[in-house]
Amino acid sequence: MKHNFGAGPCILPQEVFEQAAAAVLDFNGLSILEVSHRHKDFVAVMDEALDLVKKALHVPAGYSVAYLQGGATLGFTIAALTMQRDHRKAGYINTGTWASGAIKEAKKVGIEVDVFASSEDQQFSYIPKNYTIPTDIDYVHFTSNNTIYGTQFKQIPQTTYPLVCDMSSDIFSQEINVADYDLIYAGAQKNLGPAGATLYIVKDEVLGKSSANFLPTYLDLKQHVEKESMLNTPPVFSVYVAMLNLRHLLAHGGVAAQAQKNEAKAKLLYDAIDQLDAFKGNVATEDRSLMNVTFALTDESRGAEFDALWKGAGIVGLPGHRSVGGYRASLYNALPLESVQVLVDVMKEFNRKG
Amino acid sequence: MKHNFGAGPCILPQEVFEQAAAAVLDFNGLSILEVSHRHKDFVAVMDEALDLVKKALHVPAGYSVAYLQGGATLGFTIAALTMQRDHRKAGYINTGTWASGAIKEAKKVGIEVDVFASSEDQQFSYIPKNYTIPTDIDYVHFTSNNTIYGTQFKQIPQTTYPLVCDMSSDIFSQEINVADYDLIYAGAQKNLGPAGATLYIVKDEVLGKSSANFLPTYLDLKQHVEKESMLNTPPVFSVYVAMLNLRHLLAHGGVAAQAQKNEAKAKLLYDAIDQLDAFKGNVATEDRSLMNVTFALTDESRGAEFDALWKGAGIVGLPGHRSVGGYRASLYNALPLESVQVLVDVMKEFNRKG
Question: Chain B, 213-232: which have a CB under 8 Å from a chain A CB?
């Protein structure tokens, strides 16, 4: 039994793995890997995968859902192209590596980016709160959860401009009000499904209004929505497994019930970090992520000792991102509380020995 | 037992399905769906998946291989951006729907497209042969196999300009001389692996020389090559299954042996079409595709009768593309000769009853 604290691609429910494996061998008499995306059986899968997103997040009327490819990295570009209007100017909040990537790609498509808030001055260890949103912009962009640093917005930016969010690492982990956003995008490989699919939730009225000089078909979200995510061959297996995972989520109480479990997991681990002298958290307490818990040893010279302990307990995926070091325990939806307890027990043992 | 003649996503070897299903349950103690793309075990998979492409196609020194996402549709754009030089002009051969798509996307990124050869005048039922390639162009683009119409280039265009090819539907089906090309791209979902990955083979010296005004990071092939297909989270499972499939191909004689099997399958079916009065081929004999065999009934009023026969024999995926009608038998690498024999037997029975 391994306890997978990896930051993504990450753990999914065991039941989903079993159903996915079964479909690779037999999906209505074929392998799910050899079924045509135009076959009615897969069209039904896509329809359900789109519909379950709407159910899980209570997506209101006037919004559409689409599955694309390319991850959030291509999403940075698609978001900027979709939301670009006559100002060709946008406000971005810089809370770390992925937010910086979004800024870089917006600039590459000709948008003047006003980074009106940033936590770069303190190694992205907090979420900026006191800022003035610029005027005459096309939209405001932020990254809801910062996987690498372990911070998370607890309150979304308050603005009358269209709000755009990269929600890759916390979508489906807590309830959101989709009506607050004009565009949400998220790589699948945290709480949605395997790598290879990227989810978009978009307010219909923003589609078709881009002022971009350059809009290749694959980057035109309107066409993906109109073709019901079948503009070209979709990532069939990734969408199928996302559908299985959404079924699992909804069968177990949906996002509201999942959010309670996520809070309990995070509390268990943050309490250990705060109570055990051998550990310290990396980020501002009020901005701590419920998905990615980053921490360090008080005495870094004991690293090898700690590593041996957690590895011995069957834990994998605990090292921090290579750009920051330390430790990162990702507590995505499918990670059970029991796995967190195993980690906390290891931490207590390590603390006693110190 | 079903005989899958679908045009893609399509059949892969049964052994590959079994290995893929096993890895969804257990890949070194985790599911392949939850393993980090940065884990050494998956880095080894990616390295092997890249290396096996080089082995299978005898890719010479000075070329690189990369896996991206987005299918050939995004490939149309990436190819045009990668190959765009100061002329901002390119020559395209139009042999059908996908070639037309490539032309459309090249125009969208600001390239002046000279369609110097086209078979649109006869519903794309042949491959143009007598044409003059324009001068002062950046590259020549063609589509090696036309899945929808059932035509295939038997000789590549002869030019001193850089040659670019969308090889989605016949790559790995026959030997090619990679050195003839500056850029090859191909959606995985025919002879390579499941939908969700797109293969690029590029001459290193063309990278970094684009004259595009607009080059988002995800569309910059140079960066994908430099990051060894790990620019962002790759489509882990699709790449894994592609690796399994390439292992299978090389263990069974490689592309040369596969090409012989493909020729035998195509001959068996085309001979039946030519010899049985009840059937007729759709395209010029000399341009017939070895991958996608299109045909029609001499007496269209007998369609329901024929459909009942092949469906009764366990055949799936035989209807022609919705844009052309008739029938299309796709004979991709993994389709066994025995399946073609089942179809031919059905055709003979139908012919006798006529």
Answer: 213-219, 231-232
